[in-house]
Amino acid sequence: MTSSPTSRSPQNLIAARFVGDVREELISAFLEEMAERGLSKSEVARLLDVNRSVVSRILNGTAPLELRTIGQLAWAMGRDPQFKLPKRKKKTRGANHVGRTNAPQAPFGRNFVTVETP
Asked: Which of 17, 44, 87, 94 is deepest in the core (most CB within 10 A)?
């Protein structure tokens, strides 16, 4: 790859948004556990056998997130990590876009073309 990590390419923007969303979920889960059961960064660090500063750097965004670390943090917080990769939503092309349908084909054949209206 020739683009720099700070490039504003579509793939870098999507990746940065994803990492931010994951970190936001981690912080939200940590705050919930802190409020509900008094979980502290020190307790998470003890459970993971790391220094408290490691947990702080991960939560404040100064340490990189690795999948293993996310799983370990989830475990320490009593959470189950989940990952989904849904298809991107298609952008609409306009009210009179002509497209193919997957509706029942009946007498019109397989490639019956419809006009989508709002």
From this structure: 44
